[in-house]
Amino acid sequence: MRRNRLLTPAAVLGAAVALGPAVPHTAAATPGQNCSYVTSGYRPTLAYGATGAAVRQVQCLSNAWGGQPPRLATDGVYGAATQRKIEWIQTCHGLPASGVVEGRTWHVLYHPALDCYVPYPS
Questions:
Q1: If you write DSSP's letter for every residue of 41-72 in order, what string do you get?
Q2: pLDDT (mean) for 79-83
Q3: Cβ pair 45, 78 in contact under 8 A
Q4: What gap in Å lies between CA 112 and CA 93, rounded to an integer?
Q5: Phi, psi of 38, deg, nearest 5
Q6: Residue 51 in 3-state DSSP?
Q7: Which of 36, 59, 84, 112 could potentially form a cystine with 72 if both were Cys, beta carbons 3.0 to 4.6 Å apart?
Q8: What is the pTM of this model?
């Protein structure tokens, strides 16, 4: 009986180690870690044509997404490439793909979901 008590924690630990790599990884370990164009509390509504530090923040945060989506230049200009990437991120999170960065979109930029399986548009 004593032997079984010792095996149970060992079995749990072994299973956790074996299954660890199967758990999906987040889009970024610490989103926004290197994005310091504006404070995380400053979240204005942004859309195509906007410019400035907040747009740079959006572009930087969107670059936390690895894989297929292209990295955006953090030039502070909300152009077609930024809009396309924001629409894709919104789709990945089940938000309407408006391309407008508002409260819910800011939230997902700072707290990205697990891997997105929606193909990036060509």
A1: T----B-TT-BSHHHHHHHHHHTT--SSSPPP
A2: 96
A3: no
A4: 8
A5: -140, 165
A6: strand
A7: 59
A8: 0.71
